[in-house]
Amino acid sequence: MAEHPEDRFADLGPRPEGDASDASESGGRPSAAERFAELDEREPEPRPPTRPQPARPAGRYTWVVGIAFVIALIVAGANALHHAGQGDRGVPAGHRLPLFAAPLATSGRDKDVNFKLKRQGGVPAACDVKLSGVVTLCELGKRPLVVTFVANGSSGCASQLQRVNAVARAFPQVNFLGVVSKTSLGDAAGIARSNHVTFPVAFDRRADLFNLYAIGDCPATVFSHAGGVSAGTRNGVLTVAQLRRYVRALIASPHRALPL
């Protein structure tokens, strides 16, 4: 009699009554269910992979640090907006003007501005320079002073020197100075002559004076009380009438900032 092969996937239930194989195998052979249970014990089915758990928040400390970082960014941005442009508004009123010695545009001296406070490496301090063709704040600052900054003479900027020149004649008790920057010595002399300037005009070859005096506009006018103390800086073009009003106030109020 032929034997049935071991096929656990075919034998899913009891055989019908009268089957010869049933009679031959009834002697203690385990049922299909029992064989499956035994197989499960020997060869358990693999468990499905565990799904990764979402990362848990690090807690209150991480939240606090994040909020602090956002606040710091907001404060930094607000400070940046608050101070935007502060660095190019000139010497604040009440502060002393930086000392310097500069070549005159008409002197032929193609030299850099000297703004040293003391002698260094054989170079004298600015106030110790005593040369023809050189102008120093140490001398000009002994009286009320008006300094007009222009650059390149572009966009009508240099024409401010003409208006200042018209006012300077009416106030001999006040010193006036022009500063021309970012151009050649010859061009600086040409600007002074073409605008018929009779007061001294300094040549600022490397824009050292522009930087030293925090000038960020063209033209810009610095007003100073006697002794070299700033009365304020006015950016932009000034009319002759405005200049006269400011110079009168400079003389009348020697210790006050001008209403610029």
Based on the model shown, name its key terms.
260 residues, alpha/beta, globular, 8 helices, five-stranded mixed beta sheet, two-stranded antiparallel ribbon, single chain
How are the SSEs placed, and which strands pair?
Blueprint: H1 20-25, H2 32-42, H3 60-83, E1 101-103, E2 134-136, H4 137-140, E3 145-151, H5 160-168, E4 175-181, H6 185-194, E5 201-204, H7 208-212, E6 220-225, E7 229-235, H8 240-252
Parallel strand pairs: 3-4, 4-5
Antiparallel strand pairs: 1-2, 3-6, 6-7
How would you characterize this protein structure?
The radius of gyration is 46 Å and the shape is globular. The protein is built from 8 helices and 7 strands, in the order αααββαβαβαβαββα. It has 260 residues and is of the alpha/beta class.
Task: Summarize it.
It contains eight helices and seven strands.
> Residue ranges: pLDDT <50 for 5 or more in a row?
1-27, 68-86
- Overall shape: it is globular
The count of β-strands is 7
**Percent of sequence in beta strands:** 5-15%
Number of helices: 8
Widest beta sheet: strand line-up: 5-4-3-6-7
| Spatial gap, N to C terminus | 124 Å
Helix content: 25-40%
Main sheet attributes: strand count, strand direction, barrel closure: 5 strands, mixed
Rg measurement, Å: 46 Å
| SSE class | alpha/beta
Average of pLDDT: 78
